[in-house]
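Dear support,

I submitted the protein below through the web form. The confirmation email said the job was done, but the results page showed an empty box. After a refresh the structure appeared. I'm attaching both so you can tell me whether what I see now is the final result or a partial one.
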Amino acid sequence: MASSLTCAGVIWAFLSFICAATSCVGFFMPYWLLGSQLEKSVSFGTFRRCSYPVRDESRQTTVMVEQCGRYASFQAIPSAEWRICTVVTGLGCGLLLLVALTALMGCCVSELISRTVGRVAGGIQFLGG
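What the results page shows now:
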């Protein structure tokens, strides 16, 4: 297999992929904030939550649903700040993954990544991070 990357470029490609994968896993996991509510352990991230309170209308009380899930809609995310965080973090993860996969393809395909493309990809990674 021919490569368009130097030794430093190959290391950059693999580190980029590891960082992008770690960022994506962190984005999808609901463990950004941990705490307790109604004597139950709760956690939530930008668009997922675990053990959340729900109003039981038949008993006129609040009960804890002990399962993980996404918010029903984008508007169901608790605040505008968390919605912005969801969009920005999702876009950042997408950009990081795009650059990392392109860099990994550069390890296998000759003349795929030039010096200019490498610099642009580094700038995209900076924005994505």
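Response: this is the final, complete result; the empty box was a page-load delay. Residues 80-108 form the longest helix (29 residues).
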